[in-house]
Design a protein that fits this description.
A seven-stranded antiparallel beta sheet has the order 2-1-11-10-9-8-7. Strands 3-6 form a two-stranded antiparallel ribbon. Strands 4-5 form a two-stranded antiparallel sheet. It has 13 helices and eleven strands. Helix 2 packs antiparallel against helix 13 and helix 3 crosses helix 9.
Length: 377
């Protein structure tokens, strides 16, 4: 298994023949390869997958495997799934919208908006640093991707402030702005900041500023509700006694960092609106795609990648950049990625059979097929 960024780089690297010039996206997607990517499912890693590729150079929509183990029910290509950390892109977009209307200042500090949350040993941390992972606030430290811990606590409800305080108690990881370290902590604090400036639950702000204006009918922030509403494939965890259905889980531990449920059509619309549409002003879009001038903590970023505001910049070849976000929850491994010129957008969700670990082979096959050139006809 290889990391998603490495799979993308391999898929889009210009061929030796030079038929795809550096700095351009290959022509239409390879539909045969996409079908072949999901055809082996179920296998030892995943029970099913759904894929959506779109853009002005061609599209494809499909799925493979089964929606529920022990049945022949196919995975619905437009079914809903737990998007995991793709939630961060919704939270960052809501923050940009609040900043655009003057209700939030990205350069004001957490200490200003949430006095008393950070201990005195923290230097000033700005909202922007929360969103681009340069804040230095540690994670909570709970082993939430350990199967035994997860199965024991999957229905527990967590208070986001208390979760943040677990990380704060561990002390600063580094001075704000000097390093980049990806994690959930900054987005949990960002959710608290959004609530402080609006006086409402953060989920209401995301619905009002992002979900409703874009007409995202399948996207919701479930709070403490453990269910996935609407058609969906189930996720599982393989144990010594068989497969445990882990579809239902209370996502309050992840909250503003990774709680959302969505679908491929909604995520395709969302990413397209951010990268190519007019949902954001030019200034807001520039903010979204600004990568901080801070080196990554060693071992935390894949080669060729850096995080902006809720989205990741992946340089695949000189002059060729894809913007995207991955996300996983027990039973679900997902990703979105797109070229800024609108030539190609990918959304996928793979139903994994074990949590954590490396990128599933099915996801690598999907990514490679989605961004490789199709046969010329």
């Amino acid at each position: 298994m290889i990391p998603v960024a490495a799979a993308l780089a391999l898929a889009l690297a210009p061929p030796a023949s030079g038929t795809t010039p550096s700095g351009t996206t290959p022509p239409g997607p390879d539909r045969d390869a996409l079908r072949a990517a999901v055809a082996p499912l179920p296998d030892d890693e995943a029970s099913g997958a759904l894929v959506r590729v779109s853009g002005h150079r061609g599209s494809w929509r499909g799925s493979g495997g089964v929606a529920r183990l022990g049945t022949r029910q196919p995975v619905h290509p437009d079914g809903r799934f737990r998007v995991g950390s793709i939630t961060k892109l919704f939270t960052a977009t809501a923050a940009l919208k609040l900043a655009g209307s003057g209700r939030l200042d990205l350069d004001r500090t957490v200490q200003h908006y949430l006095p008393g949350l950070l201990t005195p040993d923290f230097k000033p941390v700005t909202v922007r640093q929360l969103l681009d992972h340069t804040h230095g606030i540690a994670g909570h430290g709970l082993p939430h991707k350990d199967p035994d811990w997860f199965l024991a606590h999957r229905y527990d409800t967590f208070d986001p402030r208390e979760v943040v305080e677990l990380g704060v108690a561990r002390g600063p990881r580094f001075d704000p702005g000097t390093r980049q370290e990806y994690g959930n902590a900054g987005y949990l604090v960002a959710g608290l900041v959004i609530e402080a400036v609006t006086g409402r639950p953060y989920a209401e702000t995301v619905r009002e500023e992002v979900i409703r204006p874009l007409g995202l009918r399948d996207t919701h922030l479930p709070g403490a509700d453990p269910r996935i509403r609407g058609p969906h494939a189930h996720g599982y965890e393989r144990t010594a006694t068989g497969h445990v259905d882990v579809t239902e889980t209370n996502p309050t531990l992840q909250w503003a960092a990774a709680e959302a449920v969505s679908s491929a059509p909604d995520l395709d619309r969302f990413l397209g609106a951010l990268l190519r549409g007019d949902f954001l002003t030019p200034a807001q879009r520039a903010e979204l795609l600004t990568v901080p001038d801070a080196p990554a903590v060693p071992g935390t970023n894949a080669p060729g990648t850096a995080h902006a505001l809720g989205i990741t910049r992946i340089e695949l070849a000189p002059g060729l950049v894809v913007w995207g976000k991955s996300g996983d929850r027990p039973g679900y491994n997902n990703g979105v990625a797109g070229t800024a010129d609108g030539a190609r957008t990918l959304v996928y969700s793979v139903n994994t059979l074990r949590m954590g670990g490396d990128q599933p082979d099915a996801a690598v096959r999907i990514i490679t097929a989605a961004f490789s050139p199709g046969p010329r006809r």
